[in-house]
Every structure is written in C-alpha cells, then in structure tokens.
Amino acid sequence: MKKQRHGYFPDDCWELIFQKLRDDDERDLHSVSLVSKQFLSISNRVKLSLNVHDETLPLLPNLLRRFRLIESIVIDTYNHQDIDGVVHQISQSGVLNLQAIKFWCISVPPRDGFKALASNKNIKNNLKKG
C-alpha cells in the first residue's frame, strides 16, 4: 500500500471541489489550473464548455484533445469560409460527452460538417435537437 503524505487529497476530492468552483463560475478553473500539473489535469476533466473565437480557431484540435469531456461548444467566428471544416474537426476529435454545438454569426448551416457529426456514433447519440 502506498504511504500517503500528511494533507494528501485524492483527485476525486479535488474534482468535487473544482466542480463546485465551475458551478459558480467556470472561469475560476483557469486560475486553479495554474497551480500545479495535478490541478491542470483535474480542471481539464471538469470543464464542460468551450468557447471558440477567431483567435482560438487554429488551436481547436489541441483544445479538443485537452478537454475530452466537454458538453457544449460555442463557435463565435466571423470566418465563415471553413465552418464545415471546424465541425468536421469536432466530429473527428473523440470528444465523448458533446451535447450541444452553438453557432453565432453564421447564416448558412455547415451541412458537410453536420454529416460528419452524424456519422460519429458517440456524438450523434448525445447531441440534443434545439
């Protein structure tokens, strides 16, 4: 049995604390994630939403690898040229709990991207119609 240090908190306990922080204001997770690698890992697991803007669009594949359990993605971009490509990236990412994708500032739905989402069984079964 591994000897535990005085003051050791298992990750499960930290996760509950971080979930409470997230419920109050998800932005608090950013501050907590800077404390240690352990806190970064735990905060990545409890983050539920991801906001994607023009500046973060190139980082989307990395963000989707980092936040595997997100439930919603908000895409707020003025770059309409490759919105299908963005949705296709999401469909290929392996995000397990995705329930909603919200689009701001686009007039034409990303049809090819939606086809890619529909072919991903993990995402298709979780997405809610709205």
Automatic annotation (TrEMBL):
One Pfam family here: F-box
Domain F-box: 9-48
Matches recorded under InterPro entries: F-box-like_dom_sf (IPR036047), F-box_dom (IPR001810)
Protein's recorded name: F-box domain-containing protein
UniProt organism field: Rhododendron griersonianum
